[in-house]
Specification:
By secondary structure, this protein is α/β, with parallel strands linked by helices. It has a single domain, classed as Alpha/Beta hydrolase fold, catalytic domain (Rossmann fold). α3 links the parallel β3 and β4.
């Protein structure tokens, strides 16, 4: 049986687990009070989308020139991996994994394998520009879709949990990168997944991981589901959001009607929560496809785990590992202060804040991230080879401005104006 046939078979088996004896899709129990709140949420969501439509109609047209195609050459986000496979999680959920081997003309040596874990409502496609750069630099790269996202299976409602994601990541590493040095990179929920892995397998971190990057993430102990609405309203979103999303997932026609008004509305919403500077239309489209391609009930199932998330104690296992913490200064989902405790609890960790950057930094400022990752890996491998005591390094916080991108945007705007 081919891997694609096995994947389809396992996906069908997994879907069956999420259904009741009647064969109907599993539904979350919603109390009468929550049903009222959910109904209110649906009304607010519909009203919000309608309002966004009016705003977007003018704003998207007005700012269209800021999302210039020249920022991304044709085919920039296309990529074919060397290997696609399915790794079976410890509870039977199929996880979609892709592996890239080093470029044939790259001097590889003994470079570590880099493992990427994506964020909530995204997929492994979010790392496309980083994986291309790393394989050119001679690294083996592993990317995977977290359960319920991308091409991976979904599992039960109870399995949509950060600790389970940590076990999933361990299975991926066990299957496709069982030996050799590792670099772990996690964005948002993916960073939390890395922390859960360390909590469960500290020996793996100690023995094999030479460097780790936490991108736009949090160790917990703070209100994570604020969505840019502030502390009070953010708590309401975290508390009642699952019920609202579950109700919406039962009414796909409402969602389709809201989005049928046009891509402009979708792009407006994506730009509001994802970016803080001009990005090419293809980046907005890719991000929108990942976000709106995530089932609403999967979003609902995961929201409670963010409110419970607290992996501050697990950070001790990264002592002695070269650690880089990255944030966008205009990230409305996980602003820089959400990551400060990671830096505080890991001696020698570096904190880099990128100006004019939102939550999806890897697509908004790819060259900056590529440069930061290259430096991180070089420091980590050198420290491992020379026995450098990373914990004795002073804590460093730097602010980085993507001047090269600023110049490209300004040049393109001038050219467009003259045209």
């Amino acid at each position: 049986m081919g891997s694609s046939d096995r994947h389809d078979q396992l996906r069908a088996r997994d879907t069956g687990r999420r259904q009741g004896a009647s064969g109907l899709p599993r539904r979350r129990h919603v109390s009468p009070a929550n049903r009222s709140l959910a109904g209110l949420g649906i009304g607010l969501a519909a009203a919000g989308v309608a309002a966004a439509a009016g705003i977007a109609a003018g704003r998207v047209t007005k700012e269209r020139h800021a999302r210039l195609a020249v920022l991304a050459p044709a085919g920039a986000y296309a990529h074919t991996p060397d290997l696609e496979l399915v790794v079976i999680a410890d509870d039977g959920v199929p996880l979609h994994v892709e592996v890239d081997e080093p470029a044939p003309d790259a001097a590889t040596g003994d470079k570590p394998t880099v493992v990427f874990s994506h964020g909530f409502c995204l997929s492994l496609e979010s790392w496309v520009l980083q994986r291309k750069e790393l394989i050119r630099d001679g690294h083996r790269v592993v990317t995977w879709d977290q359960r319920g996202h991308g091409r991976s299976g979904r599992g039960t409602e109870e399995s949509c949990d950060i600790d389970q994601l940590g076990r999933d990541l361990y299975r991926v590493i066990e299957e496709v990168a069982p030996d050799g040095q590792l670099v772990l990179v996690g964005h948002s929920m993916g960073g939390m997944t890395t922390m859960a892995l360390a909590d469960q397998h500290p020996d793996l971190i100690r023995d094999r991981v030479v460097a780790t990057a936490f991108v736009a993430t949090s160790a917990g102990g703070a209100q994570l589901v604020s969505l840019g609405f502030g502390q009070y309203f953010g708590k309401l979103v975290g508390r009642f959001g699952p019920g609202v999303l579950d109700r919406l997932s039962a009414r796909p026609g409402l969602v389709r009607t809201a989005l049928r008004a046009g891509r402009d509305i979708e792009e407006f919403l994506v730009e509001r929560w994802s970016f803080a500077s001009p990005v090419p239309p293809a980046a907005v489209r890719l991000t929108g496809d990942m976000i709106f391609g995530t089932p609403l009930d999967v979003m609902a199932d995961f929201l409670p785990t963010f409110d419970r998330h607290d992996k501050r104690d697990a950070l001790v296992h990264f002592h002695g590992v070269e650690v880089l913490v990255l944030n966008g200064n205009h990230d409305v989902l996980t602003p820089p202060e959400h990551s400060e405790e990671i830096v505080h609890l890991i001696p020698g960790a570096e904190h880099v804040v990128i100006e004019e950057a939102g939550h999806i930094i890897m697509l908004e400022h790819p060259e900056v991230l590529n440069e930061q990752f290259a430096g991180l890996i070089e420091r980590g491998t050198r420290a491992a080879a020379e026995g450098i005591e990373i914990a004795r390094k002073p804590r460093v916080r730097r602010t980085v401005t993507d001047l090269a991108k600023r110049r490209r945007v300004a040049k393109a705007r001038r050219g467009q104006s003259s045209a």
